[in-house]
TrEMBL record:
Signal peptide per UniProt: none
GO BP terms: transmembrane transport
Protein name per UniProt: ABC transporter permease
Taxonomic lineage: Bacteria, Pseudomonadati, Pseudomonadota, Alphaproteobacteria, Rhodobacterales
Keywords of the record: Cell membrane, Membrane, Transmembrane, Transmembrane helix, Transport
Amino acid sequence: MIRSFSAFWHSDFGWKFRHSPTAILSALVTLLLVGAAIAAPLIAPFDPFNSASLNLMNGFSAPMTPNAFTGQVFLLGADDQGRDVFSTILYGLRVSLFVGVSAVLFAMVLGVTLGLIAGYVGGRVDGFIMRVADIQLTFPAILVAMLIFGIAKGIIAPQYRDQMAIWVLIIAIGLSDWVPFARVVRGATMVEKNRDYVQAARLIGRKPVAIMVLHILPNVLNPILVIATISLALAIIAEATLSFLGVGAPPTQPSLGTLIRIGQTFLFSGEWWILLFPAATLLALALAVNSLGDWLRDALNPRLK
């Protein structure tokens, strides 16, 4: 592992990373937030979703100010239920990251698979897949996600909706975000399938599936990585938007979007911290991941070398 890191650090890619303050700052912020989410049970002062530990008398406690009734001090204040805002952010960050990463992985697998098939097979198969992609692009991704989420929740029995809400959210966001992967992979596949190494693989009897997976796919990974990084920021924002609108993560598993929805209810009554800190965390995460994706796109672009 040390050798791999050393090889990366002294490579051309590592040199570009070391000389880009934006990339370094974005990577540090992303690692900090991801690490905080993973270690939430260890570093969170309270378990915000354990109802037995909540005290309603702590409700609306201002940041770093002793509560008038209990005298307890909360770093970032407490919400209307007396939950520590810092702890709710850490646990909400876990949900947002889990949904975002899972949705992007689902969209990537689906989009890359369809893109490889469309680019390699061509003909009517290519035309059908691309027409479906074109139709989906005419609708905003958030509306597609809301439609899929609504249909799925209508199919699921009411007693299982809260349990399945996170998985339905992942599928909804993933199905709304596969098109960029498919279009890019299709274009790259149409170029790569005419290369000599693909022709050689055909001559030795390689099956089409093996050629697509073992020969073409490794040569189209760079744009996939860039799209995945940028899509992660968009998926996190989409999840927050759906949760803010009340059609995302359930109250029992609140994400950053759910926390922002709760906070905006009390914004104009003076409890600004309930909204500000979750919103700032979401902004920092989305901006850091998006900036990292933009840098990757430039660093992996051969025209800019």
